[in-house]
From TrEMBL:
InterPro entries xrefs: Ribosomal_uS13, Ribosomal_uS13-like_H2TH
tRNA-binding in keyword set: yes
Native species: Candidatus Mediterraneibacter stercorigallinarum
GO CC, any one term: small ribosomal subunit
One Gene Ontology molecular-function label: structural constituent of ribosome
Family, as annotated: Belongs to the universal ribosomal protein uS13 family.
GO process terms (BP): translation
PANTHER family linked to this entry: 30S RIBOSOMAL PROTEIN S13/40S RIBOSOMAL PROTEIN S18, SMALL RIBOSOMAL SUBUNIT PROTEIN US13M
Origin organism lineage: Bacteria, Bacillati, Bacillota, Clostridia, Lachnospirales
Protein's name in the database: Small ribosomal subunit protein uS13
Alphabetical keyword list: Ribonucleoprotein, Ribosomal protein, RNA-binding, rRNA-binding, tRNA-binding
Length: 77
């Protein structure tokens, strides 16, 4: 199971769908992240290499506010 942004992604789903399990990432964001990372959206999560996971994590860290930080930001409003 790939772990990105503190979330275990389901192994049998396509990466495009698996990323939507992360709070703050929808289908559009997922596709943009994968395009920036150079990963095929139709790849299954179980088939991701560790290098691809690192690329995806790096893009998310640079461009998105997700999970705990996003929840905290919303709660403060």
């Amino acid at each position: 199971m790939a772990r990105i942004a503190g979330v275990d992604l389901p192994r049998d789903k396509r990466v495009e769908i698996g990323l939507t399990y992360i709070y703050g990432i929808g289908r559009t964001s997922s596709n943009r992240i994968l395009a920036e990372a150079g990963v095929d959206p139709n790849t299954r999560v179980r088939d991701l290499t560790s290098e691809e996971v690192k690329k995806i994590s790096a893009v998310i860290d640079e461009t998105q506010v997700v999970e705990g930080d996003l929840r905290r930001e919303i709660q403060l409003n």
